[in-house]
Structures are given as C-alpha cells and as structure tokens.
C-alpha cells in the first residue's frame, strides 16, 4: 500500500512539474557581425533548445555552434574553423532569469522584460542583461530578444587582415516559441 501511494505521489509530482516547463528544440538564433559597405556576415541556427520554467521565470538555452548556416559556404567554414573553433567549443549556453516574470500576467500583446544571466561562449562565461519582449497566445509563450556582445569579451579572434570586414560587435537575435 505504501509503495502504491509513493508511486502515485511521484507520478503526480512529475506531471505537475512538467507542466511548469515549456520547451522547444526549434528556437532561432541569428548572429550578424557585418560592417557597412561589405558583404553581410550573418548566420542563423534554427535548431536551438530553449526551456522556460513558467513558475520561476528561469530560462536555459543551448545552441550547437555547427548549426549556424550562412549564405556563403566559405563564411560558414571560417565561422566554424577560424573564429568559433567549433571542434574545441561546440556549443553556446545561456542560463538566466526573467526579472519580475509572471506567466499569468502575459497576454497576446508583447510585454517588455529584462533577462539576466550568464552566456557561455567560446569557453568563456560572462554576465549579460538583455531586453526581451514576451507574449502568450493560447498555450504558447513567445520570447523575442535582440542584443549585442563583443567578440573580444569571449576571446573570439578576428585576424587583423580582415578586421575592416568583420565587426567586433556581434548582434544576436533570438526567437523562441515555447509550448
């Protein structure tokens, strides 16, 4: 009898806990480090894992660096081999907290939030604080954010020979639709 009660309680708690977390494996991250007058340097990864705890506002995201696609194959090769060194640093990870988050207060209109956390990229971890727009439509919550990081803060090398073609400031846009 005690075993049945324990198993039942465990299953109920797992169901309740799983309803608190929303997840997608198809979030999109776009990166751009273009300099005006030169060919755009922009890549997109559409296979990003993104998790939101509805109760606490905690978020986590994982992007495999080799998942970024560029219009020009040579850019993609340089991104993987020369800059991001994806064989050594295969992933980017973000863990953070949406400030003053209350999933019940979300509507179909976007609300502004601040997300604070740690971004691990190219073997270095830095604190980041970004603005985000969040909306809820039915069971789905959508998170949009657009921010910049400096490549040198993460030890990402930009050779002097092409420094005039590639900006040290990397713009990052994230779109996550969670259900």
From TrEMBL:
Where does the Lipid/polyisoprenoid-binding YceI-like domain lie? Answer: 21-179
Coiled coil segments of this chain: none
What Pfam family does this protein match (any one)?
YceI
**Superkingdom of this protein's organism:** Bacteria
* InterPro entries given in the database record: Lipid/polyisoprenoid-bd_YceI, TTHA0802/YceI-like_sf
- Protein name per Swiss-Prot or TrEMBL: YceI family protein
Q: What is the lineage of its organism?
A: Bacteria, Pseudomonadati, Bacteroidota, Flavobacteriia, Flavobacteriales
